[in-house]
Amino acid sequence: MRPWPNTFERDGDGVAWLGGIRTTELADTFGTPLYAYDADTLTTTASRFVAALAADYPRGRAVYAAKAFFSTAIVRLLRDLGLGLDVSSGGELFAGLRAGMPPALVTFHGNAKTAAELGEALDAGVGLVVVDNLTELDDLARLAAGRGVTQRILLRLNPGIDVHTHEKIKTGVLRSKFGLPISTGDAARAVEIAVEEPGVTLAGYHAHLGSQLFDMEALAAGVDALVEFAAGMRDRHGLARPLDVLSPGGGFGIPYLAGDPDLDIEAWVGAIAAAVRTACARHGLDLPELIIEPGRAIAGPAGIALYRVGPTKHIPGVARYVSVDGGMADNIRPTLYGARYEVAVVDRPHDGDAVEQTVVGKFCESGDILVERAMVPPIETGDLLAFAAAGAYSLAMASNYNLAPRPAVVLVGGGDARLIRRRETYDDLVRFDIDDHRDGDPRA
Q1: Distance (Å, rounded) from C-alpha 78 to C-alpha 59?
Q2: Residue 171: its pLDDT value, please?
Q3: How far apart are CA 267 and CA 208, in angstroms?
Q4: Strands of 175-298, DSSP E
């Protein structure tokens, strides 16, 4: 139940270190807000997924879900550890290929891929396209046939399984925008089309129930639903290879607070592998290739966010506000769906009696609250503040609200810090503006 990265520790002066470097040195060198990723945590976590699959399901592989956080340097690191890449846009595909990810190890997701994006996937030769709906299936088959190629696909199924997580990150319930519902017949109709279309080869099925999951039984139920569906389609269509690939998604939960359960990677992989074996034996199917998609589980625990504390405001009987130099523009999760973080002062001993404090950002929204009503020792103006488990879905969803430059990112390890994304400048903020008002005359 430790949400901080592996190498996060304090010295005798109360200063926190990460990757063998003082957090104060990171802040002084690169400025704040700053996102720092611990190379040891990234490597250890990714390697555990690879090793667990090798031990429990040799036909399994892990693909990193780029939507959690994309960095060319981090994707290269994960590639070298044996992971593939799960992308959900043309931009992520472009960046993944630029990072050196082999196209055959790329899986392309998305519920509303454009024709241009599908064409980019076909031209790149991605290993799998996960088809989300009937319209996309028709478009992909047409585009592939026009290019004279055949694209391996997974059909993303919606099994109608509810899970215990926030409503905004549930993706396997019937009302979700994602996937072909089994209950409505759309999934079966997609199979009928896929087996007839020359431009696609149906390799198998995918589902994703939601994010930040701790219920292994729910994921096992998802596996059961996919395998049962595959067996039914085998019987209906006489498919010789009814299930080459099975992907039950990712969504593995991580600890954000000290009391949260740890992510037991080996237990999750073992439970998924057991569910696949049991379900395939029940329905007389050969074991498929198994693909899992960790994103948050790899990036989240490895990253911390560093902020400098600005003004504080005490309203007796109401609230104690602590403002920082970042906020909802670099981390929308608390505002979007009430995410909570472990927070600590890292440039001095942080002790004394805990008091209720609310950490707020600098942006012009009342909802710009990073941590509401945290019980921690007093935080003071000038303190260096760190947020644990900030590596996923923070910068990935960052914006330039209030024209704030997005933060820098560093990768730390072995006493070295490497800048892997520079801080945006004011010039960056207006780089794409076009001013047609030459010499004050809009007609010029």
Answers
A1: 19
A2: 44
A3: 19
A4: 180-181, 200-206, 245-250, 289-293
In order, the DSSP letters of 302-361 are HEEEEEEEEEEEEETTTEEEEEES--TTT--HHHHH-----EEE-BS---S--EEEEEE-
Q: What is the mean pLDDT of residues 394-415?
A: 97
| Cβ atoms of residues 301 and 5 within 8 Å | yes
Q: How far is CA 79 from CA 48, 74, 216, 253, 407, in A?
A: 14, 9, 27, 23, 25
Report pLDDT for 390.
98
Selecting among 240, 315, 364, 434, the annotated active-site residue is 364
- Residue 208: per-residue pLDDT: 86
Question: Which residue reads 């250890």 in tokens?
Answer: 44
Global pTM exceeds 0.90: yes
From the centroid of its chain, how far is CA 196?
34
* Dihedral sign for Cα atoms in the order 13, 356, 359, 342: positive
**What is the distance between the alpha carbons of residues 307 and 163, in angstroms, rounded to a whole number?**
34
Tokens of 91: 């931009």
- Average pLDDT rounded to a whole number, residues 231-254: 94
Please give the radius of gyration of the chain, using alpha carbons only, rounded to the nearest integer: 24
Out of 65-69, 163-167, 297-301, which region has the weakest mean confidence (pLDDT)? 163-167
Structural contact between residues 151 and 200, judged by C-beta atoms closer than 8 angstroms: yes
Q: What pLDDT shows up at residue 163?
A: 46
Tokens of 46: 């990714």
Please indicate whether residue 280 is annotated as part of the active site: no
> For the chain, how many residues are written?
444
Q: What is the mean pLDDT of residues 375-387?
A: 96
Q: How far apart are CA 385 and CA 331, in angstroms?
A: 15
pLDDT at 444: 46
Q: What are the residues whose beta carbons fall under 8 Å from the beta carbon of 186, sequence distance 6 or more?
A: 133, 134, 180
| Structural element, H or E, at residue 95 | helix 90-98
Strands 303-315 and 319-324: antiparallel
Label residues 36-73 b or e (16+ Cβ within 10 Å = b): bbbbbbbbbbbebbbebbeebbeebbbbbbbbbbbbeb
What structural domains does the chain harbor? 9-38+301-429 (2.40.37.10), 109-294 (3.20.20.10)
Closest CA to 329 of 358, 361, 374: 361
176 pLDDT band (50/70/90 cuts)?
low
| Whole-number Å distance between alpha carbons of 295 and 192 | 32
Instruction: Match 């478009």 to its residue by tokens.
Output: 139
